[in-house]
Amino acid sequence: MASSKANDFPRNWLDREVKIEQNDDDLFESSGSEPSTSLATGLRDGLSSETTPTPQDNGSSPPNEQEEVTFVPGSSQRTRVTDKLGRGVYMHGGYTYRRERTMKKLPGFITCRCIFRECAARARVNEDNCKGFVVRQHNHEPDFTKQTIRQARDALEAQARAVGNGIAATDAVRVIRSTLGDDVFPKANSEEAYLRAFERARKRARQEEGNEVREEAALEPIVSEANFGQGSGSMASSDENNLLENWLDREVKIEQNDDDLFESSGSEPSTSLATALKDVLSSETVPTPQDNGPLDEQEEVTFVPGSSKRTRVTDKLGRGVYMYGGYTYRRERTMKKLPGFITCRCIFRECAARARVNEDNCKGFVVKQHNHEPDFNDQSIRQARDALEAQARAVGNGLGATDAVRVIRSTLGDDVLSAASSEKAYLRAFQRGRKRARQEVNNEVREEAVFSSSEPIVSEEFREVDFGQGPERFLLTEINKDDSKMAVFMSTFGKTLLERSRNISICEASTSSPHLFVISAYLDNLSLPAAYCIYSKKSPDVYRTALDAVNAELACNKKPLSIIADLERNVTNAASMVWPLATIGLSTYRLGTEVFSKIQSNADLLWRYNTNEEDRALMDSLQYLAFVPLTDLYHTFCTLWDSTDEMEDLFTWFFTSYIGRYFVPKQPFVDLQPGWISDSIIRDQILSKHRADPSFSPREWNLYGREKQLINNSMKQGFSRSMTSDSTIFLDIIRSEEVFSRELFNENCLAKPCYVEKDLWSVVEQYDEKSEDPVQYLKELASIYPRALDLGEINGVFKQTRKKTAEQQLHKYRKSKGCIP
């Protein structure tokens, strides 16, 4: 164990280990209750070489501030169980100092502070020779026994790592404890505690040795150049956005016979299409128990790549999972020690199986075994769905959808076909894939037309626009770079809205390319678009630049006081930097859409959501935890969970993403108390596995106490559905939305959203009375404020108000105070 590396133990422990290892043959000859002679001699010689601190040797009072002293290094409780044994604290004069930070002005020195928080004593120590100075005095008495006990624990840890077995554990513990003085012995731990520490250290040493052996074994077949050169080429190509090579081959075969593909439109598929697809699908090796049986952990195998549900509908088709032996592994993370490799885990959460896969040639190793039976039908079904998606993207029209689906299903065996989806489900998937392909093409054309040219992205007609009162500046700022382009629009009308409202919302209006987000002002029960930003690439600088441009136009005393943003960390960070005095919250509507997206990803939950009214109300209630006080949030969440049946995945995801462990009280719930079952599940199963902080803390999205501001009501956004439609001219949409915002302001007669808001207030104000049954309280909120009420329906309410006569509108306009023409 002795070496000159920084991670090795201190020199005094290394000397002690050398003395012990010289008598390794005699260490374990005696296994009785008395320690062996050689072990006692070795350990006592090592420990006696250390000077036991005493008041006479160390001085009962600290040395002068400028007097150089020698510190004794030791381990803290954390560093003792790591490779930093013997480091972490420095001791002198009965005081112990913990490492704080490296000093910039004194190279090689570190500052240390006393381990007692109430003490302001500091020390400066040279890490090379452990010499330094005490620069502040202590406010407590020294403890001369701690140094001896700390050194004994370090010696025990070092001895446990050096000894290969535990036969001499009792002997080593007794020898170390016999070196403690009479004044130190009563304050030390018992012999049983030392034995447990010895066994734990020995177990850690074995684990470290096993990890090194496993890593060396895994590296051996990787180092040879032949393994890298003999890849099967089953992954797509060097371009990350291309499809798999086998799917591309399939498309080429089909396109060669395009003239014959759709000649037959009857119930039977055409001959050319059947031949093309059958040839490609037959080239795939169907997994069988004989061919794919589990292998030894260190045997190199070839994995078959495939798509997960999420990657299949993106440009990452054919990637996301790796299959072998009837088991499917999901990508987890990139390995730092093995470049080019990734770690994958079994798709079943209860299974601890892992695999290491080379992304270039899809070869790797299974490093842990499964605890469930293999499913040999999953690979065939997954490949068929990927082939269907690739074919749907390649075909320009939907005339051959039925033929393609029937050919793909005909390649599946009877046992696989019984587990696969129906023909109608495959047809729907085909049509969705074809629609996605058209949208991608349109997005590429739009982005190329708007952003690829070197000319300014905003033409002259949009820089100054006439909204009925003469031309006025509409373009606020513009950035035209090769890698990033953006433009911010705001009229005088939008500036006045923001200054009058002081309550704004920032929301994403288009997730396609080019991107668009809107800054809306909440005024007179209306959420009116005031500023717009169109940009090519998402980055933190985009939001900061746009908000800075808007902020520069506002008066100093008219800055926003309250901001509601989407569930986007870049937006909240930029808003907090531009308007540090504003209160920033998150949109409850966006929280509801995230919950519904999670429901859609689970087929069982989605079926229950669509067929069971009670289950739908319980699922919709999750987003209305925003209207529960933070002090009651955890109890209400557990009570809501207890009232559900088989929704562990949904509630576990919500807890880890939006609540977190900091809101779990120290004391568990009493048995039979509402929510006690979910509380026990969280403490026993979730907290032990998920130690990371939530994506968004409840303090960010909780709105109890500020529900009357309700700029969070993103369903009342003024922009219409054309913002998210597949339009080809974004600038025309922005100009039309500005006109639409002015019309809404002038009409100012939105009855339904106003009533919805008042009903919501009335329920929240009665929380103290309804807190005894929190589940019913959440259901009542969900019934008033349903998730299904989206932007399109609210826009329909807006359009209905325009049916009023011109005289009524004029009367309403004159009656309102402070209207902006």
From TrEMBL:
<feature type="region of interest" description="Disordered">
    <location>
        <begin position="206"/>
        <end position="239"/>
    </location>
</feature>
<feature type="region of interest" description="Disordered">
    <location>
        <begin position="23"/>
        <end position="78"/>
    </location>
</feature>
<feature type="compositionally biased region" description="Polar residues">
    <location>
        <begin position="227"/>
        <end position="239"/>
    </location>
</feature>
<feature type="compositionally biased region" description="Polar residues">
    <location>
        <begin position="48"/>
        <end position="64"/>
    </location>
</feature>
<feature type="region of interest" description="Disordered">
    <location>
        <begin position="283"/>
        <end position="309"/>
    </location>
</feature>
<feature type="compositionally biased region" description="Polar residues">
    <location>
        <begin position="30"/>
        <end position="40"/>
    </location>
</feature>
<feature type="compositionally biased region" description="Basic and acidic residues">
    <location>
        <begin position="206"/>
        <end position="217"/>
    </location>
</feature>
<protein>
    <recommendedName>
        <fullName>FLYWCH-type domain-containing protein</fullName>
    </recommendedName>
</protein>
